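Homework help board

Subject: predicted structure for assignment chain

Our instructor gave us this sequence and asked us to write out the predicted structure in token form, then describe one feature. I got the tokens but I'm not sure how to describe them. Can anyone check?
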Amino acid sequence: FSTPVIVNDNSGSDMGHAPHGANHPNGPVYVAWADYNVQLADASMGTIKIDRTNIPTALPVFGVDLLVANIDPVPRNLSSTLGVYDDTRGDTYPALAVDENDASGNTVFLAYAADPPGADEGDIYFVKSIDGGLTWSPPLRVNDDATSRDQIHPAIVDVPSFGPLWIAWYD
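My token output:
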């Protein structure tokens, strides 16, 4: 293994949580993570961030953290549909994929869970960047249920030979 490299720029009470990496065959390596202040009792404000490096064969040097979205993180312990404590561990894990059909490696797909308004404590959202993470599309809610059931732990994969982008999650 190589020497560990710090990816996120934050220090202090913010937490680079649940990092997820993806790379393009032509070079860019991306890492996304959830970031929120762990000293807040409810951790009610958080962000999804991303960083990239263009040096896949050497020791990576990551740049400035890029904001993907401001979110309300999914609660650490979810409530059941009956409104009682549920032992299910909820987290705001981002999932990342890079479009292999884009030769520049600048098209990035990201799915994440966030706590929406109302009784539902977790929905899955999708965003896309075509400029290497500098800007992002507006969040699109992926799950289409009309229940108070939570959706968490997304996974995303781009399968160029099959065409579509696939997103799955725990429901």
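Reply (TA_rk): Your tokens look well-formed. For the description, you could write something like this. The chain is about 0% helix and 45% strand. That's the kind of observation they're looking for.
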